[in-house]
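Please describe what follows:
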Amino acid sequence: MMQFAKLQGLGNDFIVIDCLQEKIAEQEYSELALKMCDRHFGVGADGILLVLPSEKADIQMRVINSDGSEAEMCGNGIRCFARYVYEEKIVIKKEMTVETLAGIMIPKIITDEEDRVRLIEVDMGVPLLAKEEIPMVDVEQTLGAELEIEGQAFTVTAVSMGNPHCVIFVDDIKQADLEYWGPRIEKSAYFPQKTNVEFVQVLDEGEVIMRVWERGAAITMACGTGSCATTVACVLNGRTGRNVLLHLDGGDLQVRWDENNGHLYMTGAAENVFRGIW
């Protein structure tokens, strides 16, 4: 038997397992995610978040997608992760450091007068834009790159937030066929490590609508790293300012790209759903 918690951030849902208490062999991570994340025969989730010790930070987070693959980072996931370790008193700090495969992230717990968690702000670090950093091949540049997939031309901006993203601007988000093009762009030869895919409709200089196909998880209700990548793409293409409110299928995220230090700051909710025993 193993205890777990389920949390969600804007409908992007995760199973959190405290590996400080539960002993799981690393080779079991993938199979465990496949079983637990199944929405018919398991708990149901977009992925599992593993709480692990760290020699570099206060705590370590590993993210295993619902298809068993491992993600470098997850923006909605790290907010859920931060709430869990704070409320479980695993990390007794409102501003903590979290080791991820994408580097050290810094979530900040925002509470109300009664010390109840209200929001979590995360310093997501700086975006990466070089082709080699994403990685991306067979293009001249990552800003305004021209792709051809199944005879369809796409103008995209690729950004890495420790994991790859492909941002595509559209005039009408309702006309974007995310279910069809998402997996085809994700697995296209342009992205040797696959990619997350965001379709984005700009409303004004501070507001956009975003829908996401996540690498390893298909369509999800929200994506934190995708929201950061989208903000970067919006700014670099001159479509918005540096403070952006993103309307996602599961709710809203606020992202700010700081002009001074180049870091992206993402603020949003993370909610407990239930606890259980597997």
